């Protein structure tokens, strides 16, 4: 059992949440995950990413939640939609999806003050062999990271698990963006790196809440941000993929708050 001290923090400034707080995170995480389930059938060639965002914005309201991204540092949309060589923070717009496009949709909602943040990959139309492997490796990399989550392990163990797996597949891990603590705030300490040395970084403790959200490129890891100040793309124009879960550290592992209610987390088969 955890203590009942309010707002307990580690020396690294990482908040330790209480047992009762897991329920709040579950509720928020499930709303975000349900929205990502709902949008799947709409991801088809010919649809614009702005149209997808509009559906998402309506769902956020329908489910009694609030968008965490609308108004966040000037961002004006209910989702980030990152297509092909866009690494993250793609802005929904009038451009339409083409057959074979791969995209990440990232949604963060607030329910009763708790934040649920999750993203996953989708395909418009037919998936090619090469992109299927990128998506599979990125998905599995997230779960390698989650498997490293338990009290006594370190954040470096999470990053190491992800990086070593991805690089063994001859793909690269993006360094310029990371996961983050969340809970009753959107972005809190620590930075959750998706690369690193085993045993380095803060020690994981029961009651920590954070995201793991690896971005994996088929080419080199370097990124650049476009003139809109949001859209991050691969410098070499290679394809990029990302999956994100919000999780809590339990006595012996991880509690995944953002599991798909319909088993649609992976785009090509249930998981
Ligand atoms: N949801 C993103 C994350 O995983 C943050 C998006 S911020 C926005 O941390 F303003 F771009 F929406
Ligand atoms: Co996040
Ligand atoms: Co996110």
Write the layout of secondary structure elements.
Elements: E1 8-9, E2 15-16, H1 21-39, H2 49-62, E3 66-67, E4 80-83, E5 86-88, E6 102-111, E7 114-123, H3 129-147, H4 155-168, E8 172-173, E9 179-181, E10 188-192, E11 209-212, E12 215-217, E13 223-225, E14 232-234, E15 240-242, E16 245-249, E17 254-256
Helix pairs in contact: 1-2, 3-4
The structure holds 2-amino-4-trifluoromethylsulfanyl-butyric acid (MF3) and cobalt (II) ion (CO) (2 copies).
Distinctive features:
four-stranded antiparallel beta sheet, alpha+beta, 4 helices, globular, 271 residues, binds 2-amino-4-trifluoromethylsulfanyl-butyric acid, binds cobalt (II) ion
Account of the protein in words:
The chain is an alpha+beta fold and 271 residues long. Helices cover 24% and strands 25% of the residues. It contains four helices and 17 strands. It has helices at residues 21-39, 49-62, 129-147, 155-168, and strands at residues 8-9, 15-16, 66-67, 80-83, 86-88, 102-111, 114-123, 172-173, 179-181, 188-192, 209-212, 215-217, 223-225, 232-234, 240-242, 245-249, 254-256. Strands 3, 4, 6 and 7 form a four-stranded antiparallel sheet that branches. Strands 5-14-13 form a three-stranded antiparallel sheet, with no helix packed on it. A three-stranded antiparallel sheet has the order 8-12-15, with helices on one face. β6 (102-111) and β7 (114-123) form a beta hairpin. α1 crosses α2 (49-62) and α3 packs antiparallel against α4. The chain is globular. The two termini are 31 Å apart. The mean pLDDT is 96. Bound molecules: 2-amino-4-trifluoromethylsulfanyl-butyric acid and cobalt (II) ion (2 copies).
């Amino acid at each position: 059992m955890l203590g009942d001290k309010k707002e307990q923090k580690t020396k690294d400034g990482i908040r330790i949440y209480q047992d009762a707080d897991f329920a709040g995170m579950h509720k928020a995480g499930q709303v975000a995950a349900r929205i990502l389930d709902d949008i799947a059938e709409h991801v088809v060639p010919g649809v614009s990413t702005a149209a997808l965002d509009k559906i998402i914005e309506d769902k956020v309201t329908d489910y009694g939640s609030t968008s965490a991204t609308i108004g966040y540092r000037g961002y004006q949309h209910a989702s980030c939609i990152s297509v092909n060589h866009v690494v993250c923070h793609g802005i929904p717009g009038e451009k339409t999806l083409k057959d074979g496009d791969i995209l990440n949709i990232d949604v963060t909602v607030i329910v009763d003050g708790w934040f649920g943040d999750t993203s996953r990959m989708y395909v418009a139309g037919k998936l090619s062999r090469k992109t299927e492997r990128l998506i599979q490796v990125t998905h599995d990399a997230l779960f390698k990271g989650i498997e490293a989550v338990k009290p006594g392990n370190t954040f470096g163990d999470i990053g190491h698990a992800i990086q070593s797996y991805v690089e063994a597949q001859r793909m690269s891990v993006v360094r310029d963006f990371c996961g983050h603590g969340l809970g009753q705030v959107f972005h809190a300490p620590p930075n959750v790196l998706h690369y690193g040395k085993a045993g380095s970084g803060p020690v994981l403790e029961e009651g920590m809440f954070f995201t793991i959200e690896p971005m994996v490129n088929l080419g080199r890891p370097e990124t650049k941000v476009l003139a809109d100040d949001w859209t991050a793309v691969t410098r070499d124009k290679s394809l990029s993929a990302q999956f994100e879960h919000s999780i809590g550290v339990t006595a012996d592992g991880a509690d995944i708050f953002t599991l798909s209610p319909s088993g649609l987390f992976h785009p090509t088969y249930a998981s």
